Every structure is written in C-alpha cells, then in structure tokens.
Amino acid sequence: MDNIIFSSGRPQPPMPRQPKPSRSPESISLVKTFLRALPKGEEDWDDKAPRTQEQIEQLRLDLTLSKLVREGRAKMKPKALLPSFAEEHAALLRDLESQIHSFVFIALGDVAIKSDLPVREVDEMTMAYTGAQRSAVRTLRLGVRRWIKASDTLRQSWLPRADELPLRRKSFIHIMKKIPDEDIGILREMTVEGDQAVLADVKVYIPKKQLSSSSLRIPNIIHELYGGKLR
After folding, report:
1. Which label site among 97, 99, 155, 179 has the fewest CB atoms less than 10 Å from its CB?
2. Domain boundaries of the chain, sorted by first residue
3. Region Disordered: start and end of each range (predicted)?
C-alpha cells in the first residue's frame, strides 16, 4: 500500500499557500454525494457505539487483535496475519457488514501485496470472506486508499472525528473510489460556518461532542496489527 498506510498521522507543518486547482464538475458532484450522506446532527453522531472514549479504545483493541500478544503479531507474516484477522471477524466482513472492519481487512490485504504475497492469493481470501466479486476487489482496495486520504484531510481541516465515519454511515467506498486523488482536496477547501462545513449548496454538521477517535485511523490500526514493526 502507498506510504499513507505507514505515515504517523502527526500534524504536518503548514505548507505555503498555493492557488486552488480547478476542480472538475464531476468530482465536485461526487464529493457532494459523499457529504450528503454524512451525519445530519448530534443525534446521528451518537446513535450507536462507540459513544464514549472507553468504547473507542475497546474497538481499537478489537480491530488490532489485542488477544494476540503484540510481540507475537510482530513476528507474523502477512500470509498468517491476514487470515487471523479474517477468521476473528468473519461475520462482520461478510457483505461488508461492518465498514470499518472491512476497511482494515482490505488495507491489510494491500499491505500483504506490497510485502510480496501474490495478488491472486489476497484476492481469493478477500472474495471468500467478504463475498465480493473478483472484479470488485481491486476497486475496493482503491476505495480504501482514497478513504484514508479523505479521512486525513477531514481530520486535519474541520472534522476531528472523521475516523468514526465508517461506523456512522453505510457504505461509501463505492463513491470514494470514483474521486480522483487530486480532487480529495475539495474537502479541505470547504468553508466553516458555525457548526457546519459548507460546499456550495451542501452543508455538513460538525459534532459538538469531541471524542478522540484518531486511534481508529486505518494506517494506525494496520501499524498496531503488525505489532508496531511497520515504519
């Protein structure tokens, strides 16, 4: 997977302001479609777990296979770690039942490919556990990569709780895969007006309750799944 998976997630120093690039109408329309599906108010940000910092930490432990000792995970090769995650969360991966578990699984597969596990082997495992068609597996990986970029952009600009969105809304991976990498920056260009971020005629609610959920960032989860050995 590209180096987003391995980055620390720490805030970066501000870059010199550059002129805004021109955006295609199609990309703006796709971003608007994504934004319209986001939580509409405080109740939508609190309608299901995790609602507390403790629940976020428990989910992080669940996603990182904390039942396996960290030193043991650090010694596992991708060929062993990928099925270990899949078997532990099989019910949540079927038909992408849990979006965040599915995103982690797909990202794990991407890292495994970069670590020289054959693409076909990863694809077969992804199809077996998620029910996805072979033709969809590659685009799922693309969608997760772009979600990572989008969530980083949102978190660093106006939505600190962006990493919870896979839990708060139904599948948006199919929209994410269509947004070109260079146009994800549209999310950063939105105007904040009170408790809303605005893009033309679309307004997105910014939750007042501030949980710290950056530990659910997909690359951070992958890093911990590998026992912290990925740099």
Report:
1. 97
2. 25-62+75-225
3. 1-26
